UniProtKB/TrEMBL annotation:
It holds the Pfam family ABC_tran. Transmembrane segments: none annotated. PROSITE patterns: ABC_TRANSPORTER_2. InterPro entries: AAA+_ATPase (IPR003593), ABC_transporter-like_ATP-bd (IPR003439), FeS-cluster_ATPase_SufC (IPR010230), P-loop_NTPase (IPR027417). SUPFAM superfamilies: P-loop containing nucleoside triphosphate hydrolases. Residues 4-249 form the ABC transporter domain. Belongs to the ABC transporter superfamily. Ycf16 family. Keywords: ATP-binding, Nucleotide-binding. This is Fe-S cluster assembly ATPase SufC.
Amino acid sequence: MSKLVITDLHVTVDTEDGPKEILKGVTLTIKEGETHAIMGPNGSGKSTLAYSIAGHPKYTITGGSVTLDGQDVLSLSVDERARAGLFLAMQYPVEVPGVSVSNFLRTAKTAIDGEAPKLRTWVKDVNAALEQLNLDPSFGTRNVNEGFSGGEKKRHEIAQLELLDPQVAVLDETDSGLDIDALKIVSEGVNRFRQREGKGVLLITHYTRILRYIEPDYVHVFVDGKVAESGGRELADALEAEGYDKYLKANA
Ligand code: ADP
Ligand code: MG
Ligand code: MG
């Protein structure tokens, strides 16, 4: 069972001119087994939504709520959010100096499960995950994000997703900077995750391209800090054909 409920979420970010409201009342429910795509123009607040759910300190929640299976997510620390079953892959992942991919994954898994994974099965699982993502086993010995190409960063994100096995995954611009082969590999990883029992996915993207490989159950158009329209997959096709113009005009 996993259900992420976002209700009338308002968020400000600190700027040089003082706090600026970015999220202006976001309401969205992701039930178990559902994949939702959030699509919107640049600057509409999509990443702010992801960062707010993740608990990034730069963003201040001024109203509304986020719950996972009824538990108040916003009162949890970043670590507690992960332990509660949330996974947030970020648009701009940070370098972790001096920590290898293998150690990073094992430390994260241990923190989330509350106990270290059994070494033998863990090594097997890690190698299988890397192989499926077309990453060389030696990738595990590299330092996290140090000198990673765009594609390696994204594939590392999906390796985390598959190994950490959260309940709900928020993926921000997982498709950005990927060539078509890498996009397919990454999408297949997300689809493997979706096939597991009861998983929820919030897929945030600017382009419709990835939705050819990861078919969402619901599509939401995000404009000026809130959901402007919700629908099924056909909404993504309409966006592909018509772009965001009509929403931006309606909003001007
Ligand atoms: P999107 O991901 O949809 O492109 P963002 O959430 O990144 O949009 O940004 C939404 C708006 O909030 C933009 O106008 C952006 O300039 C502003 N913003 C976001 N984060 C910050 C920040 N840390 N400092 C200042 N402005 C920010
Ligand atoms: Mg409101
Ligand atoms: Mg963004």
